[in-house]
Amino acid sequence: MDIHNFKGQFDRSLERIKESKEISEINKGIIFKFKDYLLSEGIGICKINRYLQDLMKLSRMIKKPLPEASKDDLTSSHTLKGGDSF
Fold first, then answer.
1. Phi and psi at residue 84, in whole multiples of 5°?
2. The pLDDT value given to residue 3
3. Could you please report the per-residue DSSP string of 36-48?
4. Across 56-76, average pLDDT
5. What is the 3-state secondary structure (H, E, C) of the chain?
6. Which end of the chain has a smaller Cβ tally under 10 Å, C or N?
């Protein structure tokens, strides 16, 4: 029994990623591939959902394809102190 509705939260996160205009198609593909990998490794949907939420926020903040993001992009004070917090 899933009293916290983790499956529903997971499904909503996936839908939010698909529908987001702020996340590039490249980043969406990377996020979905990462999700598939985590599922194949037996990681629970609650943990995966947390990763999805973090990747959504990060994708919106850095505004570039994730493979092109540098360490500085990911650790800059603008990214870390931007409107959304982790």
1. -95, 145
2. 79
3. HHHHHTT--HHHH
4. 88
5. CCCCCHHHHHHHHHHHHHHCCCCCHHHHHHHHHHHHHHHHCCCCHHHHHHHHHHHHHHHHHHCCCHHHCCHHHHHCHHHHHCCCCC
6. N
pLDDT: is 80 or 69 the higher one? 69
Domain boundaries, the chain: 6-81
Over the stretch 13-63, which tens digit does the pLDDT of each residue have? 999 999 999 999 999 999 999 999 999 999 999 999 999 999 999 998 888
Exposed, middle or buried, 58 (CB in 10 Å: 0-12/13-18/19+)? buried
* Alpha-carbon torsion angle 7, 10, 14, 20, nearest 10: 130
What single letter denotes the amino acid at residue 25? E
**How does DSSP classify residue 63?**
-
